[in-house]
Amino acid sequence: MGDFVQQSTQENMTMMQGFEWHVPADQKHWVRLEKHIPQLKRWGIDNIWVPPGCKGSSNQGNGYDLYDLYDLGEFDQKGSVATKWGTKEELVKLCKTANDHGVGIYWDAVLNHKMGADHREKVKVIEVDPNNRNREISDKYEITAWVGYDFPGRQGKYSEMRYHWYHFTGVDYNADNRLTAIYKIMGDQSDGWADAGDVDTEKGNYDFLMGCDVDHDHPEVVEDVLNWGKWLANEIPLKGIRFDAVKHFSEDFLRRFIAQMDETFGQGWFFVGEFWKDSLHDMRKYLDRMQRKFSLFDAPLVYNFSEISRGNGADLRRVFDGSLVQSDPIAAVTLVMNHDTQPGQALEAPIEGWFKPLGYSLILLREQGYPCVFYGDVYGMGGEHAQPPSCGGALPKIMLARKLYSYGRQADYFDYRTCIGWVRYGTWDRPYGCAVVMSNAGPGTKRMHVGELHAGEVWTDVLGWDHSEIVIGNDGFAEFRCGQTSVSIWVNKKAEGRERFSEEFDTNIYGI
């Protein structure tokens, strides 16, 4: 028999959303991110979801106002060469630096709609009920709509495709009378929305979201967007794609797009969709239709966090109830906040500041799920509802604790309403493990077992919020504690890497 070779423990991966809604529109974002790559890698970030880098309808927009897929900040269109984030040259440099440091880039693909058309066209439409898009509320009539896309600054480079009214399923503005409504486009090749079952059934048929709704059944559109996917992956080194608004465009097309990327660039790409819905049932049905080659952001978990953070002594034991990470951990991208749920946004899910360290510990220090850290929590948020970095600036320490110590078998102590804890036992090659205890009420204590092999060790809180030392008993148990509405992460004070928690954690990205 051959020699037994013990497998190395797979390193924990963490992704970061690399922007928040109110990043300054100074065209310097790619430069800022690039300079912080080495630090982010040292904190434990392995992949960064960058904002939509294609040209929007203005250089102030965040890219969800998509104008031209093939302009990454290269052509003088919509007011500037650069996007809000910077130029294509700076984007390529960011991706190269990330690649050199072992950090992958996930692209934010906005494929559902276009905005900022170059000219108007006459188009036959039928108005529909905004709350039931299957209910027509007018006869067919003609409007003038902004649906012509010529991309004059690009002049056909990379793609000769021009978009016209028949490449869209709907619009929301009539230039003849300046009225807004939801207008279903009626034409020779299209009778309106995507087929039933190919998009979400909310509001009857949720094909239309905003702007000029792209028709992913039109063969010219299909060819152009599939070509764009291959073009993008050849222009910049990517490890994956985050798809915006997947509830609203063709599942059949998305499956085809993903299959193409896997076939062309090799298996192992990471794909995650924004299927933002507080319904585990609908999320699981979507994953089944996508043949499980896909991940989704865990929206129900975010709403659980919001509810618990605003409740008085809510039941922490139920924090994962109804969440995707509880039922389908392989498919769940866990998060605390993102650009849509941050204060002041349309999908705002308020999470009290005291709860942020608890929420991040729950997604970063447990076995299940692929955690996504929010830029606005690491570096702060701007705008009318500006906030400083969350967790008192300690979020990088929680990220680092995941990278160094959150390994091995997990034992839960979810046995008290307002105080829960868990232990990670470590592995043969990552032996230190950790013990986490948190409270959403008064100070908490939890007697937990970390293993007899740790007997006599002195453990301390890597966050430095509890200054005591805990000695592990001969039976492998100890009384671990945390402060009021707080969390503590206990690790052997002599564990490899402990000195890194005393380093300066620079969360001032705008000081460059």
From TrEMBL:
InterPro entries: A-amylase_thermo (IPR013776), GH (IPR017853), GH13_cat_dom (IPR006047), Glyco_hydro_b (IPR013780). Coiled coil: none annotated. The keyword Hydrolase applies. GO terms for biological process: carbohydrate metabolic process. Keywords: Carbohydrate metabolism, Glycosidase, Hydrolase, Metal-binding. It holds the Pfam family Alpha-amylase. Residues 13-415 form the Glycosyl hydrolase family 13 catalytic domain. One of its GO terms (molecular function) is calcium ion binding. SUPFAM superfamilies: (Trans)glycosidases, Glycosyl hydrolase domain. Its cofactor is Ca(2+). Belongs to the glycosyl hydrolase 13 family. This is Alpha-amylase.
